[in-house]
Amino acid sequence: MPETSRVLVLGTQNPGKIKEIASILGDLDLSLWSLREFKNIEPPEENGDTYSENAIAKALFYAEATGLCVLADDSGLEVTALANAPGVFSARYAGENASDADRRGLLLSELAKTGDRDRRARFVAVVAIANADGAVLNVAEGICEGAITFAPRGSGGFGYDPLFVPNGYDQTFAELPDDVKNRISHRARALLKTKQFLKSYQ
Fold first, then answer.
1. 124, 117, 137, 115: which is closest to 84 by C-alpha?
2. Would you write out the chain's pLDDT as a tens digit for each of its 202 residues?
3. E strand or H helix at 56, and its extent?
4. Angle between the N-to-C axes of helices 15-25 and 186-201, in degrees from 0 to 180, rounded to the nearest 10
5. Residues catalogued as catalytic
6. What is the pTM of this model?
7. Phi then psi dihedrals of residue 180, to 5 deg
8. 125 phi and psi, to 5 degrees?
9. What is the CATH code for 4-197?
């Protein structure tokens, strides 16, 4: 069992996020745990108006619940023609129990109604770290600009990845190799800033 001072809990049960975070932070002198290591911790409500508010709230909640240092994130897709929707509601866009496919389908349907041919969009992520004493240690933001496809493409990634083509590329996040996505994505950019903080904090 590692020293708890060397443990960083990833405040998510999403296997895609866990894999993505571990691939970027895995070479640090830390033991990365996820919420799957803990039983009976219900997720907090995400009722913040911003990604930062939600990321910080989750980090503080899980840090108190586990008694350990926690990294939590909040992210969303902002589509220009939809007045930056779904934004902070990205995970709940088609209702609480909707699937990723449901959310993608609704987004494409709503975007089609606008007649927008440019389909500009951006992904935004905020990563927060908090400790069990209730202190927020670091907050980092990452943004990736791009456009929305007319149909899902690719089998990698998760969420809206099959719909999003980052600027400078022809492939969606779901088509790009992991090593490329983990360099350029919104979450990767926030995590790389977080990594620099963790190196100095150690």
1. 124
2. 355 668 999 999 888 889 999 999 999 999 999 998 898 898 898 889 999 999 999 999 999 999 999 999 999 999 999 999 999 999 999 998 899 999 999 999 999 999 999 999 999 999 999 999 999 999 999 999 999 999 999 999 899 999 999 999 999 999 999 999 999 999 999 999 999 999 987 6
3. helix 51-66
4. 50
5. 74
6. 0.93
7. -75, -50
8. -135, 145
9. 3.90.950.10
